[in-house]
Task: structure prediction
Amino acid sequence: MKFNKTGLFHSLQNIDFKYFLSVRFFATFAAQMTSTLMAWQVYKITHDPLALGLIGLFEVLPFISVTLFAGHYVDKFSRKKIIIFAAAILLLCTSSLAIFTSTGLISNLTHGIWLVYSINIVTGVARAFLYPGMTALRANIIRGPQMQNSIAWNVNVWYTAAIAGPALAGVLYDLIGIVASYWIAVICFSIAIFSVFKIKEPGIPEGNRAENIWQSLQEGIHFVFSRKIILGAITLDLFAVLFGGVVALLPVFASEVLKVNATGLGILRAAPFIGSLLSGLYLAARPLRKNVGIILLVSVGLFGLANLLFSLSSYLWLSAILIGLAGVFDNVSVFIRHTIMQMYVPDNMRGRVSAVEGIFISSSNELGSFESGFAAKIMGLIPSVIFGTSMTFLSVGLASKLSPELQKLDCSE
Result:
């Protein structure tokens, strides 16, 4: 099958994909708004950084625990219905936060915070179903010539929502208060659910619904670990974020190295997202065709190099450019990983494989922040980044050695 059609908006000609992007944007936007409001609310009550850390912990643990089982059901039943179920749970969680806040229940320091954590646990379970469901449904909707363009737009929309959600949450909190802000997030979840209903599902994946769930999970895990090209791509992403990222340390760099105020920190925070969006727009217009595996390996290596040079910079403008470039290279690797997942995973395995991928990615994001802080405390700020980027370079070398198929990856056909 030749890729003979190109264009920045190629995949947007597909009406079902437009509705999918609506789901992606409004669900992500609402989730980011909710998490930002929740974090601010918890800190205002407790004034304890550990309480903030527990928000992420109580969400990621159920996500990791449940997502493999969720992947099994995504491969056996209607993906639309699973997404609607997960989004509806998230809507109920945000509604509960609005109601409990308006009635004063969360303001009680003894019980209110644990009420928030309980809602977080349910949120983690819902996310565990939403992630593989969305990944599998997108692959059902878009195939062939539009595939890479759709992947780029999927990532672009996610980044846009991930930036806009927290930013608007802060503005709305000051303008209309936290309760009304929560209800706006509820409205966004409602729009996402409505958009799911508008998608024409291509069909329920073929598979034996009576299959033993443990056998099904084992099959999904075995599939990932037996396909070196898939395992190599996921592992590269895992190690790059786990060791090579510096986002968690940006407040330290801003204060101690660059000597800038909160505005300078905001510039540093925004730079990688801007880089990711710019590279995403380029990839949407000009999808990668040749030497894709080599580009992946080089991109991860350049991601590490950009972060290393960032740690050595003492000028805000140079630091912003370098971490912006890290965002560019990170997005290229994400784009290629999604391409590999769509090209090499059969439809009746997408849920389980996406679930395994989700565990890798969630683990790298959460543990990466911990690793950055712990290494900086033990080694010092700059040495910790040098160590992390060295591990990133090592992961590139190991991936190219252990997965020669990855180097040969080509998307010309």
